[in-house]
């Protein structure tokens, strides 16, 4: 089935200012250019797992889900974490990109996103020791084989489980490590064939790359464990392999957790684990390998640590990496107001804004943010009669957070 072009027009899709000169004072609605890819505004949909795939294949649900964001003006839509191997999924219902049969289903989503003028991205991932779990809305338990899980085939850098009710991982052999590196590169090739424009490597939230980065989860004694140089080796090998096959004309991003939160001070040192200082050095190294942007998240690798879950609590990491590694960054995490997103860009704390759960609560986040600033932006033709009636229902207000930069 062909996808009709529903956008207002090719040059001025939903989410772009009708008169760019009149919107020059609002950075959220400035285009964002990397390589040959031009994103029409600086608001993107953060990758969020929907746990609705069948054998890794995207389906009609995803058409509706991602299409709604494109229709409502999101500049970039990053499709959820997609496993580079079957056992690299978080749950049996997670998306995958480990075989060529999955390309056509991904391309359906890509075509819908592009039909509205938005830019399609995807996050490729390996869940490491947090694999074979249940979708969170069903509970928090290890899936068995009868229900599609692989509890005896969960892997990590070491045999240290994430928590008591998670799988007992097997430490990867060096040959298995090399195979997973190749799988990341193969998934990147498939993403390109499907028409993806921005590729993001998932190195955050306690999944495989993050497992290797942190000494709290990486207890290896070979060249992949111990020192900072050894712990970052796997992640750098993945980046190098992916950049070698990903078109040079397209941006490559990586999401990292900037701290494990073992130190109560988010900007403090944790030399035996993972902290903002090591994240800055890692950002410098992946930049040299051809990464174009660091998506700055945090946590997820250690069970039971406390998070400073206040609005914009992760922006300080994006600002620190942007300043010290001299690379573009994306801010993410409890960004729920357009004015806060604009403030982040205006104060040069980040170059791009990724919004997650607020898009689930309000898929008109882009359109309503424009109304907050009295910016006349293009709406979908079919919705244009409702422009003056749109109202924001979420009254949660952000707060200015004091940022301490190392």
TrEMBL record:
Q: Which residues form the NADH:flavin oxidoreductase/NADH oxidase N-terminal domain?
A: 27-366
By its UniProt entry, which InterPro entries does this protein fall under? Aldolase_TIM, OxRdtase_FMN_N, YqjM-like
Could you list the residue ranges forming a coiled coil in this record?
none
For the keyword Ion transport, the answer is no
Query: CDD domains in the record, alphabetically?
Result: OYE_YqiM_FMN (cd02932)
- Region Disordered: list its residue ranges: 1-20
Cofactor list: FMN
Judging by the UniProt lineage, the source's domain of life is Eukaryota
| Protein keywords | Flavoprotein, FMN, NADP, Oxidoreductase
Q: Does the keyword NADP apply?
A: yes
Q: What is this protein called?
A: NADH:flavin oxidoreductase/NADH oxidase N-terminal domain-containing protein
């Amino acid at each position: 089935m062909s996808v009709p072009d529903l956008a207002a027009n090719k040059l001025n899709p939903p989410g772009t200012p009708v008169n760019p000169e009149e919107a020059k004072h609002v950075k959220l609605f400035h285009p964002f250019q990397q390589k040959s890819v031009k994103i029409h505004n600086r608001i993107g949909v953060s990758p969020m797992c929907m746990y609705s795939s069948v054998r890794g294949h995207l389906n009609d649900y995803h058409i509706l889900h991602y299409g709604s964001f494109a229709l409502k003006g999101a500049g970039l839509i990053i499709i959820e974490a997609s496993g580079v191997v079957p056992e690299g999924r978080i749950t049996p219902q997670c998306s995958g990109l480990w075989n060529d049969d999955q390309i056509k289903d991904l391309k359906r989503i890509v075509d819908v996103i592009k039909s509205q003028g938005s830019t399609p991205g995807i996050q490729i991932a390996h869940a490491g020791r947090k694999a074979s779990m249940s979708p969170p809305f069903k509970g928090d338990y290890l899936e068995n084989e009868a229900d599609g899980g692989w509890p005896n085939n969960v892997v990590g850098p070491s045999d240290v489980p994430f928590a008591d009710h998670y799988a007992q991982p097997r430490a990867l052999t060096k040959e298995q490590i090399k195979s997973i590196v190749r799988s990341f590169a193969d998934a990147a090739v498939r993403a390109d064939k499907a028409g993806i424009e921005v590729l993001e490597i998932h190195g955050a939230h306690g999944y495989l790359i993050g497992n290797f980065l942190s000494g709290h989860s990486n207890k290896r004694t070979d060249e992949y464990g111990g020192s900072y140089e050894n712990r970052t080796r796997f992640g750098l090998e993945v980046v190098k392999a992916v950049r070698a096959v990903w078109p040079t004309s397209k941006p490559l991003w990586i999401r990292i957790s900037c701290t494990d939160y073992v130190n109560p001070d988010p900007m403090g040192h944790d030399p035996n684990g993972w902290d903002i200082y090591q994240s800055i050095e890692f950002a410098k190294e992946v930049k040299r390998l051809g990464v174009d942007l660091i998506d700055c998240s945090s946590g997820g690798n250690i069970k039971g640590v406390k998070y400073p879950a206040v609005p914009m609590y992760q922006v300080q990491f994006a600002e620190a990496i942007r300043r010290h590694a001299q690379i573009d960054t994306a801010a993410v995490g409890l960004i729920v107001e357009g004015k806060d997103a604009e403030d982040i860009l205006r104060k040069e704390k980040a170059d791009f804004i990724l919004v997650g759960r607020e898009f689930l609560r309000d898929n008109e986040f882009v359109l309503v943010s424009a109304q907050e600033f009295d910016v006349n932006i293009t709406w979908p033709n079919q919705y244009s009669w409702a422009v003056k009636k749109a109202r924001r229902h979420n009254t949660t207000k952000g707060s200015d957070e004091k940022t301490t930069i190392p």
